[in-house]
Amino acid sequence: MGVKERRAREKELLRRQILSAARELFVNEGYENVSMRKIAERIEYSPTTIYLYFKDKADLLDSVCQETLLSLLNTLEQLKKDKSDPVETLKKSGRTYVEFGLKYPQDYKLTFVIRPQFQKGLGLQEGSIGEKVFDYLRAVVSECIQQKMFRQVDVEITGQVMWSAVHGITLLLIDFPDFPWTERDILIDTVIDTTIKGLKA
Asked: Which residue range is the domain that position 118 belongs to?
């Protein structure tokens, strides 16, 4: 490995170290209570070093959330390869979304609850990873309509309905783990199945 490649790898390792420390502090201490200096202290570097990678704390939060959304998108994209039954793909996508949120609850809340409190919207600007996640959902819904498995429903409304259902159950299960929920898998499947049933042709 040459000097240039080694330096690039070292820079990427440090960037990931900064993101990891920021994610942990944002979750444990609250975004508003974390400073760039505190993040720098956690990784034993000067704040100046962090500013070489991120312009400010908001940029750092956005980068953490973009990583979460990219991981979610990559997970979902694996399901879209099989186009034989788009309704089944939509069901699997809904379950995968919920399972992702439950597997990474802190990252999920940073992305969908905490960031919107400090930055406008959900990060769905044109070309963003967030927009691509929603585009994935729109594409699966469109395929259901095209194959006449759904009524001629509005794609945008239907996509938002599906997201409302899976986001709602994900957040409830994260925030209220002590609630006497019924068997979790049955609950998740019922929420998704009931939502989809109302759309079928």
From this structure: 62-197
- Are 67 and 152 members of one domain? yes
Calpha distance 13→162 (Å, rounded): 37
Count of alpha carbons within 13 angstroms of residue 38, beta-carbon side: 14
Residue 150: helix, strand or coil by DSSP?
strand
Contact 53, 15 (CB under 8 A): yes
Nearest residue to 112 (alpha-carbon basis) of 168, 196, 151: 168
Q: Over the stretch 111-142, which tens digit does the pLDDT of each residue have? A: 998 888 776 666 667 778 888 999 999 999 99
200, 151 contact by CB (below 8 A): yes
Tokens of 20: 């990891």
Does 126 share its domain with 105?
yes
Tell me what pLDDT residue 199 has: 86
pTM of the full predicted structure? 0.86
Rounded Cα gap, residues 94 and 39, in angstroms: 35
Distance CA 106, CA 171 (A): 11
Label residue 97 exposed, middle or buried (CB < 10 Å: 0-12, 13-18, 19+): buried
